[in-house]
Structures are given as structure tokens and as C-alpha cells.
Amino acid sequence: MIAVLVSGGKDSTATLLLAIEKHGKDNVLPIFTDTGFEASETYKYLSYLEERLGVEIIRLKNPDGDDLVSLILKKKRFPNSRMRFCTALLKQVPVALYLMERKDVKELWFGIRAEESRRRKEKYGNITPEDTWEYSKWLNNIGYLRKRDLEKLTHIHCRFPIVDWSKEQVFDYLKSNGIEPNPLYSMGHTRVGCYPCILGSWKDYKACWQTEEGRRNILKLRRIEETLNAQGYNTKLKDHITANRLIRRLELNEAQGDMFCEEVCELCKA
Ligand code: SF4
User: Fold this and answer.
1) CA distances in angstroms from 98 to 46, 58, 91, 161, listed in the order given
2) Residue ranges of the chain with pLDDT lower than 70?
3) What is the pLDDT of residue 258?
4) CA angle 15, 92, 267 (to 5 degrees)
5) Residue 90: CB within 6 Å of ligand 1?
6) Cα of 132 to ligand 1 centre, how many Å?
7) Domain 2-176 belongs to what architecture?
8) CA 10, CA 186: separation in Å to the nearest integer?
9) Which ligand 1 atom is nearest residue 90's CA?
10) Reduced to 3 states, what is the DSSP secondary structure of residue 125?
11) Domain map of the chain by residue range?
12) Which residues contact residue 250 at a Cβ distance below 8 angstroms, ignoring those fewer than 6 apart?
């Protein structure tokens, strides 16, 4: 059995299609990890994929019942690129715990592309779609699982089947299979995940601000920041900007258009 991590984004959808094409849908196990902070478009998109592909997507959550908001409140800080506890606890750990019970799964496929970012190029630029990594060793790096748990996962190997694909190849592959991409892309988002991803770019926050749901979520992040600061934790939404300032910029941008972005703005440079 091939397990495929599905986020509702284009890359993981292409990876799922590829797995089904190569191994048949009865041998493929799609897994989605729900951070509790996803866009409603993404939940709808998962249902669309299930219907179009005739598969069931397994939905997993954090075993302690945490979602992104409760986790930030527990940790008393927002995640950043150096402390990505959200990915570890809301995504990687639930998948690992689930796969410990699935002895029939031999491979875990990731829709990672080296071209996505400089960081990804450094990490995945030298691997090929045929290469495999031992899952337990890979997980060991995240540091949240005990040795005896990792030992239960040694039968699984990771693969990155679209690691050398371009963004255009991914969209073309979806199109040639008659699969629509998540509508979030046509709404200006560059990636699919939390709505918004705390680590996201100005473009993603700006796209989120255009919808009622996204705006509500960004305002919720400001309330979290205020709550934590009122408790004495000096925390900021992003390293270089508070949620409050970010929202002021979003409001200004809305009122004045993109001209505003030409001013010196740390977020644009991030
Ligand atoms: S999408 Fe962003 S905020 Fe959500 S889990 Fe991933 S890194 Fe964390």
C-alpha cells in the first residue's frame, strides 16, 4: 500500500494522481491532516477529489485534540521557520501515529518539489523521484517521537515522486487528468494550508484578506497575539511584524491599492 499525504494543494493532488495511475486506487491510501484552520474551500475540494477519483481520504487530527489556535495558545507563541511546531504536532505526529498501526503501508509519498523555494532546493535538490528515505530516520529529525515509536515505522520508506517537476508540469498534469486545482489558486493564493499559513507571504495574507473567512481568521490571530501579550508573553505574529501592524497594512493596501506595497515594507521583502 502507498500512503500519499494530501493537503488539498496542487502538488499533493498531482502526487495522488500519479500514485493511482501507477498502483491503482485500491493500493493507495490518501491522508489529510486537519489543522482546524483550513479554508472551507479546501474541505470542499477534498470532497471533490474523493468523488472524482473514487477514493476515501483519511482525515487525521492532532491526538491531543489541538488545532492551530489552541496550539499557539499552549506554546505561548506563533510558529516560525525555526520553530515549526505546528507542522510537527498537527501534521507529522498524527501521520506517524496512524502509520504505526498500518503495517500494510510500505511507502509514503510526499508532493514536495525542489523548485518551490530556496530552502527546498537546498534540501531536496539532489534527490530524484526514484530515491527513497527511511521514514523513521526522517522523522527522528523532528524530535517529537520516542525511539520505540520510531522503531514501529522502519518498514516505511518516503518518496518524492514530483521532486523535479515544475509548477507548470503540475498544473498540466492535473489538466490532462481532468482534475481542477483547488479554487484558492485562482483567488490569488500561492499555496494551500492553514488559512492563512502563519509563515505565509504578504501575497497569501493579502489573498486571505479578500474573503470573509480569511479576514475573520486574520482578526483571530490578532486576538491571540493580544491575549498572549496581555499575559506577559512578548509575541509577534511574524518575526518582523505584529498582527496589528499587518492588519493596518492590509487595510491601507485595500484603501490605496498596490501602490502602498512600493513603500519600504518588511513583509513584502520576506
Ligand atoms: S500551513 Fe503554515 S501554519 Fe499551518 S501547519 Fe503548515 S506551516 Fe504551520
Assistant:
1) 19, 10, 11, 22
2) 258-270
3) 62
4) 85
5) yes
6) 25
7) 3-Layer(aba) Sandwich (3.40)
8) 12
9) 5
10) coil
11) 2-176, 201-269
12) 205, 206, 209, 218
